[in-house]
From TrEMBL, chain A:
InterPro entries: DUF2344. This is TIGR03936 family radical SAM-associated protein. Pfam families: DUF2344. Residues 238-251 have a biased composition (Low complexity). Residues 224-267 are annotated as: Disordered. Transmembrane segments: none annotated. Residues 3-191 form the DUF2344 domain.
């Protein structure tokens, strides 16, 4: 039984794909690509796919992760190509490594988000960010299945800053960009909760919906507030000690196929 | 009008609506051709929500047929839900295609496929959102030709004022012929404006242009006659029939949506048409003659379609799938091929006979045997003779017995209420049938957890059927009859708890009846309902009977007619019916004889196995039924490892 871990994206208009929609599309792609999937037992067998921590519908992502179980060995790199050919553009598999370690889900400790605020000037955004960070606690409310629920957003935020770039767009319209590092806690704090927090602390009210993209997920370095590639341990294990069962295919994983991703913020 | 994508404007609205994924396109196997590379451009609409419209085979086939053609493009559009409609109006975003997100008004042809009349108000919403005048008479050269097709187009009169033209029958070849005419007219610099283009279409004899026909009425409200008002326009418009399905193996690349839709499977139409002759069934009448896809053609479509989509279920579609001359070999061959791949096979629309249990067993070799569905349609032997559904209660019990013996646990039975000549007694016998089914099931299986669900729909008489003259049962009478049946079932101490009873109410059927057999005067009702907020009439939560009745009371009495006149009134032989000038191939006199046979409780055989009974289709269209057997088999696929 081989396990392969994939990193994939939700880009452009396909960011409106819900997690359930993605699951169906991915399982069909597995069949189209003729991946020798392991199936669960029972009346309605399902291919064994473990999804971790999906981004909310409507937010883009460069860093979603899942793991599949195969009944026959496959080389991760060509498998990735096959899957990409079988998925719609925008749902792209950007990395594939054989699992050599346990606990991928445990390594997804935090996310790096980019938040584009069309119509908001960088200075306005900076003031709001400062007010948010200065607060001990920022209570917001969100509607959940069990009604409105109030919770703190401040504690989950490991880092929040405006990105200095040519962020004000060429057409002269202001567009502030925030970079946010959020710890995965319970209850989960999502980027829109932080936006609610910015509204609560500093009256930040973007005129159009923010465009939100997850840039990375992984282990959080508390010192620097950066996030490291959660597939790196598998890649390291593969290069250090090629798997005995099918050494060749495992060794073919191109090292550096995916640069270690981190949330260096303004770097 | 600019064909530029409106996606940037739409995108800003999407975070505020339910299920935004349905509006973004990007489905697997969808096509966006460069606008400038094409000189004839179609937008195709299924006028219902995306989740219903996307799997529609008709639209999918035409989309692919058109896009395969050099210099032609087709994009799809669906009805937007009221939440997005409100935002689109507020922010001036027009009705758009999900492929290129182009405004519908920028295309040459706006084609709508109507499986049901309940999509009419959605058409008006789409036209209005698109910025296209609702009335065909108000359109200019800047507007597309608005074209209707689908089964409801066999009586397009209620929407005649909103349509530029309609096509009846199979669309595959028709859309290409229309494309050629549009292309030539555009290349010549659009001489004579819209009228010239419509005239060229009408002259073919296969495109109905309502404006070229005048309807004259008698003092009592009936139609006196329908006359062409231009020379060169034919008296009757004939339907299109594709003869060799193997030459049209579409869809080859079925669309695979990201959003969840009502049918998530690879569908293959295994034959078109049906000659069983059920008198209530419009589909069976208007799609004659029977034309089978060959067993090898089916095998090839399934194989390529599964590769192209990754679907895990194959649906073998037709009006009565077990009637394919080689269905046994088809089912076994496919089950053999895909047994290892966890591909499910389904065979909707099967009849009540024991052979179908063998088929069902074949299709569920390693799956669950949960429920089987049959449609006896009528509760009593007598009423089944009236509707020509030739199945006896013994047949049903024998079938059900075999099913329970093979491990099936639940049987669902479909019936109709309000059939011509029906009495309370005919309907109450539905309860007896359900009881007998459960008794047999308990006996054969030796278990008590046997269920039978009775699902009942109100009968709506349809154009081009022997029942086109029949009075429809009023909503009140339908409801009263079914209340008696429900009470009878609930009162049965021994079996009542094992019988499920599904029925809503008779009101939507009356609106469907008004639209099905309506004439041009009904157009005003549709418009008033739309203007009063009517949308998504096929959806229980959006449908408003009161809105329809109010609109009818405001518009119809001035013309000397009312809803009852269109629905519960019986027509006579002499009456000119609103759809008489649309030729489905059926001989009107044969339909009348069949109506008389119905009243006499006389049955008619299936012409596939018995001599021709002169329904008129084959000689009228100069063709013949196309059936097997071919004697061929599906060979195992060579597996490349």
């Amino acid at each position: 039984m081989q396990r392969i871990r994939l990193r994939y994206t939700k880009r452009g208009r396909l960011r409106f794909t819900s997690h359930r929609d993605f699951q169906r599309a991915f399982e069909r792609a597995l069949r189209r690509a003729e991946v020798p999937m392991a199936y669960s037992a029972g009346f309605t067998p399902h291919p064994k796919v473990s999804y971790a921590n999906a981004a909310p519908t409507g937010t883009g992502s460069e860093a979603e992760y899942l793991e599949i179980q195969l009944t026959a060995r496959r080389d991760p790199a060509p498998l990735r190509e096959l899957l990409n050919a079988s998925l719609p553009d925008g749902l792209d598999v950007t990395d594939a490594v054989e699992a050599h370690t346990s606990g991928l889900a445990d390594r997804l400790q935090a996310s790096v988000w980019e938040i584009r605020l069309d119509g908001v000037g960088t200075e306005t955004a900076e003031r709001a960010v400062a007010a948010f960070l200065a607060a001990e606690e920022v209570q917001v409310e969100r509607r959940t299945k069990n009604g409105m629920r109030a919770f703190d957003t401040r504690a989950a935020v490991a880092r929040l800053e405006t990105v200095r770039s040519e962020s004000d767009r060429p057409d002269g319209n202001a567009c502030a960009i925030l970079r946010l590092v959020v710890r995965h806690l319970t209850p989960a704090v999502r980027p829109d909760d932080v936006l609610s927090g910015l509204r609560a602390t500093a009256d930040l009210a973007p005129p159009v919906p923010a465009a939100v993209t997850r840039l990375a997920q992984g282990l959080l370095d508390e010192e620097s507030g950066t996030v490291t590639d959660p597939l790196a341990p598998d890649r390291d294990a593969a290069t250090a000690a090629p798997s005995t069962a099918a050494g060749l295919s495992a060794a073919k994983v191109p090292s550096g196929a995916s640069p270690a991703v981190s949330g260096e913020g303004t770097a | 009008m600019s064909a530029e994508s409106v996606f940037p404007q739409l995108e800003a609205l999407l975070p505020h609506v339910q299920k935004p994924i349905q509006y973004v396109g990007g489905e697997l196997n969808s096509t966006v051709k460069p606008w400038e590379s094409c000189d004839v451009r179609w937008s195709l609409m299924y006028p219902d929500a995306y989740e219903v419209g996307l799997p529609n085979q008709g639209v999918m086939i035409l989309y692919e047929v058109l896009n395969e053609r050099e210099g032609v493009l087709a994009e799809r559009t669906y009805s937007v839900w009221p939440d997005l409609e409100a935002l689109m109006r507020e922010h001036h975003v027009p009705q758009f295609t999900v492929d290129g997100h182009r405004p519908v008004r920028a295309f040459d042809v706006f084609g709508l496929s109507f499986s049901t009349e309940l999509g009419y108000t959605n058409m008006l919403t789409a036209l209005d959102l698109a910025g296209i005048p609702l009335l065909a008479a108000d359109r200019t050269l800047d507007d597309p030709i608005v074209l209707a097709g689908g089964h409801a187009a066999f009586n397009p009169e209620p929407i005649a004022d909103f349509l530029d033209c309609a096509v009846v029958g199979d669309g595959e070849q028709a859309v290409l012929e229309i494309t050629d005419i549009v292309r030539a007219w555009k290349a010549e610099g659009r001489p004579g404006g819209r009228d010239e283009l419509l005239f060229r279409l009408a002259k073919t004899g296969g495109v109905y242009v309502p404006k070229f026909y005048d309807v004259e009425y008698l003092a009592d409200g009936r139609i006196a006659r329908v006359v062409p008002n231009r020379s060169g326009v034919p008296w009757r418009v004939s339907k299109h029939t594709v003869m060799d399905l193997d030459e049209w193996p579409y869809p080859k690349q079925p669309l695979v949506p990201l959003a969840e839709t009502v049918h998530e499977r690879m569908s293959v139409e295994i034959f078109r048409g049906c000659t069983r002759g059920c008198r209530f069934c419009q589909a069976g009448m208007i799609t004659r003659p029977v034309r089978e896809r060959s067993i090898t053609g089916i095998g090839e479509m399934v194989e390529k379609g599964l590769k192209a989509t990754g679907f895990e279920e194959v649906g073998l579609l037709s009006l009565s799938s077990a009637d394919h001359t080689e269905i046994g070999d088809v089912a076994k061959g496919l089950a053999d091929r895909y047994e290892e791949d966890k591909i499910g096979l389904s065979l909707p629309s099967t009849r009540v006979d024991a052979f179908n249990i063998d088929l069902a067993n074949e299709l569920t070799r390693n799956g669950r045997r949960s429920g089987l569905t049959f449609a006896p349609e009528g509760g009593s032997e007598r009423i089944r003779k009236v509707i020509n559904k030739m199945v006896s209660e013994e047949d049903l019990i024998r079938t059900v017995s075999t099913a329970y013996g093979n491990g099936w646990r639940q049987v669902k039975l479909y019936f109709m209420c309000g059939l011509p000549t029906e009495t309370d007694e005919d309907v109450l016998q539905i309860g007896d049938m359900a009881v007998n089914v459960i008794a047999e099931g308990r006996k054969v299986s030796g278990q008590n957890d046997i269920r039978c669900t009775v699902s009942i729909g109100g009968f709506v008489p349809k154009p081009h059927t022997p029942f086109q003259w029949a009075p429809q049962l009023s909503a009140e009478e339908t409801d009263a009859r079914l209340t008696k049946l429900r009470d009878k079932i609930r009162g049965d101490k021994k079996y009542g708890r094992s019988i499920g009873f599904r029925y809503h109410d008779g009101k939507p059927g009356i609106v469907e009846g008004l639209l099905s057999r309506g004439d041009r005067r009904v157009g005003a009702v549709i418009r008033a309902v739309y203007e009063g907020g009517g949308r998504f009439d096929g959806w229980r939560e959006h449908f408003s009977y009161d809105r329809w009745m109010k609109a009818a009371e405001e518009t119809l009495p001035a013309q000397g007619v009312d809803v009852a006149w269109y629905t519960t009134r019986e027509r006579t032989y002499e009456e000119v019916l609103p759809w008489d000038h649309l030729d489905s191939g059926l001989d009107k006199d044969w339909l009348w004889e069949d109506w008389q046979d119905a009243l006499d409780e006389t049955e008619v055989e299936d012409c596939r196995w018995t001599p021709c009974f002169d329904c008129g289709v084959c000689p009228q269209l100069d063709l013949d039924i196309q059936i097997g057997p071919t004697g061929k088999k599906l060979l195992p696929l060579t597996v490349v490892k």
